[in-house]
């Protein structure tokens, strides 16, 4: 089948999702532009029309867009004045985990491929800034719960990193055909971390 020219209808999001699938299957270094292009029925040359800087640019956008997606979900919850800290934490974890299980290749990229932008200062700085903003949302909720007396006085930084580490690893072990749905896993993880924090 002939590949589509760049101007035909292949969205940027389609390309990034396809790239995440290829990165998950082959790893960043093993993946070729032609592999990504083939997934969306484009020529490699057409793919460069969308991403002139090539595979590194695609990886940056996969990581940044994935992080932006979950950040927006969590931010809306954290900024809701009608929710208590426990409600915010439970809903934030649920939103975060379900987003990861709905996009397992992006979730895997956020674990395994981040190191491949660390030598790219522009890419690294943009990604780390996003990561810090996201992490701070969780820290804010946990600190608010401690200040209001509903959460135990834990080390907020360590607890947040532990929580996010557990979330991130979902991209490694989750399988859509597995025993539990993404929603089931999200509800279980939210309950585990909430129970660890609540004052008795």
List the topology elements.
Layout: H1 12-26, H2 33-39, H3 44-50, H4 55-78, H5 85-102, H6 104-112, H7 121-147, H8 156-168, H9 170-173, H10 182-197
**SS class:** mainly alpha
Biggest pleated sheet: none
CATH topology of the largest domain: Tetracycline Repressor, domain 2
Distance between termini? 64 Å
Total count of helical runs of at least 4 residues: 10
Order of helices and strands: HHHHHHHHHH
What is the total tally of β strands? 0
Describe the structure.
There is one protein chain. The protein has 200 residues and is mostly helical. It has two domains: 1-52, Orthogonal Bundle (Arc Repressor Mutant, subunit A); 55-197, Tetracycline Repressor, domain 2 (Orthogonal Bundle), CATH 1.10.357.10. The protein has ten helices and no strands. Helix 7 crosses helix 8 (156-168). The longest helix is centred in the C-terminal third of the chain and has 27 residues, at 121-147. 32% of the residues are buried. The model is unreliable at 1-7 (pLDDT under 50).
In short:
This protein is mainly alpha-helical and 200 residues long.
Tags for this entry?
200 residues; mainly alpha; Arc Repressor Mutant, subunit A; Tetracycline Repressor, domain 2; disordered N terminus
């Amino acid at each position: 089948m002939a590949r589509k020219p760049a101007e035909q209808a292949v969205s940027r999001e389609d390309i990034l999702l396809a790239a995440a699938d290829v990165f998950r299957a082959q790893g960043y270094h093993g993946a070729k532009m032609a592999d990504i292009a083939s997934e969306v029925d484009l020529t490699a040359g057409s793919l460069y029309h969308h991403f002139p800087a090539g595979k590194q640019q695609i990886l940056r956008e996969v990581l940044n867009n994935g992080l932006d997606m979950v950040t927006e979900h969590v931010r809306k919850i954290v900024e809701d004045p009608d929710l208590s800290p426990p409600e915010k934490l439970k809903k934030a974890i649920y939103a975060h985990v379900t987003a990861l299980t709905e996009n397992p290749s992006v979730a895997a990229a956020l674990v395994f491929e981040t190191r491949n932008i660390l030598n790219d200062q522009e890419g690294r700085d943009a990604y780390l800034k996003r990561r810090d903003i996201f992490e701070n949302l969780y820290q804010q909720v946990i600190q608010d719960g401690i200040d209001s007396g509903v959460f135990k006085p834990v080390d907020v930084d360590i607890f947040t990193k532990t929580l996010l580490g557990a979330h991130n690893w979902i991209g490694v072990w989750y399988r859509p055909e597995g025993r539990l749905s993404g929603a089931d896993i999200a509800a279980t993880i939210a309950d585990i971390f909430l129970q660890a924090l609540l004052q008795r």
